[in-house]
């Protein structure tokens, strides 16, 4: 085990359906590293993020995030762990349709007693939203936001609790080039301010030089399904 690793994965295996199996012998990511995750569609990038965050439990192997052995936790413990420690920007955003953009950004605070909505949290939510150009849109429900705006709401929601681990699944996918750079600036800034580790799945190879490291799914051993 690497001493200062934020993420330590060993002997990971997960089969999904009849035709897909993910296998990662070893993966270690130091605290504070900014990592891009690339690979062909269907290679298992989202599956890996889901395992790291405890949304999926693997068939075999160990995942440690910080001091927590995530793969030993119960479903409920994994949900609590995720709410407290991980900011997840989902590929399809997963916004709550009946809540306003503002309430969606504050949503992680409704999920766990460990987080409470203070004046400071509300102010920070406004500031984060303004930094991604969402001012004036915070009362709208997701149905009345563009794809790019929904994505920015999802990013603010992931960043607001200052998580130690940020997992972003194509967080720049629906944006124009200027906004891609802006969103990456914000993800990097917030990660640095919180001393957080960032794993970002991207298909956008122009962004790769900005990361400390690139994990390419082509490097993982293919498992006959
Ligand atoms: N709930 C599920 N049940 C069965 N198979 C699934 C399920 N979700 C995903 N898969 C399969 O797992 C494989 C990996 O999917 P995953 O979403 O991790 O790929 P990805 O690398 O993130 O792809 P993309 O770049 O297109 O988002 C795919 O073959 C997919 O069809």
What does this structure look like?
By secondary structure, the protein is of the alpha/beta class. It has one domain: P-loop containing nucleotide triphosphate hydrolases (Rossmann fold, 3-Layer(aba) Sandwich), CATH 3.40.50. Helices cover 32% and strands 24% of the residues. The chain has seven helices and nine strands, in the order E-E-E-H-E-E-H-E-H-H-H-H-E-H-E-E. The chain has helices spanning 45-52, 75-85, 101-106, 108-111, 119-131, 147-159, 177-194; strands at 5-16, 20-30, 34-38, 60-65, 68-69, 86-89, 165-169, 197-201, 213-216. The strands form two sheets. Strands 6-7-8-3-9 form a five-stranded parallel sheet, sandwiched between helices. A four-stranded antiparallel sheet has the order 2-1-4-5, covered by helices on one side. A hairpin with a 3-residue loop joins strand 1 and strand 2. Bound molecules: adenosine-5'-triphosphate (ATP). Adenosine-5'-triphosphate binds next to helix 1. Adenosine-5'-triphosphate (ATP) binds next to helix 1.
Outline the fold blueprint:
Layout: E1 5-16, E2 20-30, E3 34-38, H1 45-52, E4 60-65, E5 68-69, H2 75-85, E6 86-89, H3 101-106, H4 108-111, H5 119-131, H6 147-159, E7 165-169, H7 177-194, E8 197-201, E9 213-216
Parallel strand pairs: 3-8, 3-9, 6-7, 7-8
Antiparallel strand pairs: 1-2, 1-4, 4-5
């Amino acid at each position: 085990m690497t001493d200062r690793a934020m993420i330590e994965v060993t002997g990971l295996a997960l089969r999904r359906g009849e035709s897909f199996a993910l296998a990662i012998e070893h993966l270690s990511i130091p605290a504070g590293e900014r990592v891009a995750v690339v690979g062909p569609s269907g290679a298992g990038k989202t599956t890996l993020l889901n395992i790291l965050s405890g949304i999926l439990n693997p068939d075999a192997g160990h995942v440690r995030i910080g001091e927590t052995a995530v793969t030993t936790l119960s479903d409920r413990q994994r949900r609590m762990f995720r709410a407290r420690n991980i900011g997840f920007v989902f590929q399809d955003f997963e916004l709550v349709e009946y809540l306003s953009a503002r309430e969606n950004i504050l949503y992680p605070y409704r999920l766990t007693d460990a987080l409470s909505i203070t004046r400071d949290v509300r102010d920070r939510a406004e500031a984060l939203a303004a930094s991604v150009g969402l001012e004036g849109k915070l009362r709208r429900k997701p149905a009345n936001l563009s794809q790019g705006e929904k994505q920015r709401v999802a990013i603010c929601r992931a960043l607001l609790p200052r998580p130690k681990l940020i997992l972003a699944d194509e967080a720049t996918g629906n944006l124009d080039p200027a906004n891609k750079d802006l969103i990456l600036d914000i993800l990097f800034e917030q990660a640095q301010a919180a001393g957080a580790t960032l794993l970002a799945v991207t298909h956008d190879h122009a962004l790769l030089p900005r990361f400390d490291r690139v994990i390419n799914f082509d490097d993982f051993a293919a498992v006959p399904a």
